[in-house]
Amino acid sequence: MIPARYQASRFPAKLMQDLGGKPVIVRTYEAAVQTGLFDEVHVVTDSDIIFETISGIGGQVLMSKNKHESGSDRIAEAVEDMDVDIVINVQGDEPFIDGGSLKKVIEVFKQDAEKEIDLASLMTPITDWDEISNPNTVKVIVDNQDFALYFSRSPIPYPRDTNVEATYFKHKGIYAFRKRALLDFQRLPMLPLEAKEKIEAIRFLEYGKKIKMVETHVTGIEIDTPEDLERAKKAWK
User: Fold this and answer.
1) Could you tell me the pTM of the whole model?
2) Residue 227: CA atoms inside 13 Å, Cβ hemisphere, count?
3) Is the pLDDT of residue 9 over 70?
4) Integer Cα distance of 85 and 198 in angstroms
């Protein structure tokens, strides 16, 4: 499922910007299909423009019935009546999808015989302090079994003791959910930590859900700003 909101706060209409002759959302949809990992790929949107664009290429697209605060809420509405076990959320602004990383996320559930894991997501190591301190970069800290402890736009862990080595991880906006966890997310109200940080993954932690993080070294390019789009265009060439 690819949630696709037209009026993004930092970069409005970013999903309809041109990337190598096609809109960003089309590039993301085609990349998800081309991985060959999924039974079905749907775009879920609140936008007539995006709906018509995906329909125009013969893609599968659903129109949200209600207004939603997050992509996970939008997907939960879409899958409620679908006969599925695992739902993968691929952000619409990530056209450089890495099939290998997605496969690792899916494997988490195949190895979880007791069904203890509610969702899985990706993280990648970062070392550049500008990126670590950038509030547009969501960071995650994990326990010794790679379960998420917290997500933040601030640098975590805080480098109080500069003599102690620590790896900083950037959270990549790809989630794999058990359907039940996703439906719970839609039902449960937003709490103060999520509202403060504007990071939807925090809601799962606040309600005691277990998030397994999978490390990847494929960074890709997330298109959050016009500058990101320019980098994406150069990479596409």
Assistant:
1) 0.84
2) 2
3) no
4) 27
